[in-house]
Design goal:
methyltransferase; protein methyltransferase activity; 6 helices; binds S-adenosylmethionine; EC 2.1.1.196; alpha/beta; 9 strands; Cbl_synth_MTase_CbiT; Rossmann fold
Length: about 190
């Protein structure tokens, strides 16, 4: 499950509006789907998962949190399952890709409106790097990567000990026009821009 603290950042980076149409790819428990649907009160969230149990869990949680009227759950594997989503979306989150991250980003690029936001959670360096490379190749703009390291307090006999979780990379960017190669910034310019 995407943990509460990471979800807060993901939702913030999706920059949802009340009427946003959102994709949650690899919805799992539905935790991001529910948070997105709570924000997009007049919008729609398409939750996609290839696992039957995850699909059922997402459905149940959408009902439990009172957002099932604006959640459409799709049982299928991305990117093919994106064909079941009609029209364009304003924001997309990728929380699971099963080794198909590049194809999923290309598929999502085809569904996002221009200016639409793509946010990806990556646990491995390889996926973070693949996400950045693919988004650059497709011409996404304002791409940023954030490394999140969360430590939670555990009460012990001698006091509260902070237990670290593994770092997560959150990659976010905006669709410009699919297939356009964005300009490459030199390391020197990148440092100047900070
Ligand atoms: C880390 S988990 C779920 C994270 C989810 N945001 C949550 O809070 O529960 C990743 C999920 O992605 C799904 N998944 C992996 N590859 C997929 C693909 N290509 N298409 C659809 N779902 C996929 C898995 O079945 C799993 O439920």
């Amino acid at each position: 499950m995407t943990k509460e603290e990471v979800r807060a950042l993901v939702i913030s980076k999706l920059r949802l509006r009340e009427d946003s149409r959102v994709l949650d790819i690899g919805s799992g428990t539905g935790s991001v789907t529910v948070e997105a649907a709570l924000m997009a009160r007049r919008g729609l969230v398409y939750a996609i998962d290839s696992d039957e149990n995850a699909v059922e869990l997402t459905r149940r949680n959408a009902i439990r949190f009172g957002v099932s009227d604006r959640v459409i759950v799709i049982h299928g594997e991305a990117p093919e399952a994106l064909n079941q989503v009609p029209g364009e979306v304003d924001a997309a989150f990728v929380g699971g890709s099963g080794g198909r991250l590049r194809d999923i980003i290309v598929g999502v690029c085809g569904k996002l409106s221009v200016g639409g936001r793509l946010v990806i959670d990556a646990i491995t360096l390889e996926n973070a790097s693949l996400a950045l490379a693919t988004m650059a190749e497709l011409g996404f703009v304002n791409v940023e990567v954030t490394e999140v390291v969360i430590a939670k307090g555990l009460r012990t006999g001698v006091g509260t000990v902070m237990l670290s979780r593994n770092p997560i990379f959150i990659i976010a960017g905006e669709k410009n026009r699919c297939g356009r190669v964005s300009s490459v910034v030199s390391i020197k310019d990148a440092i100047k821009q900070r």
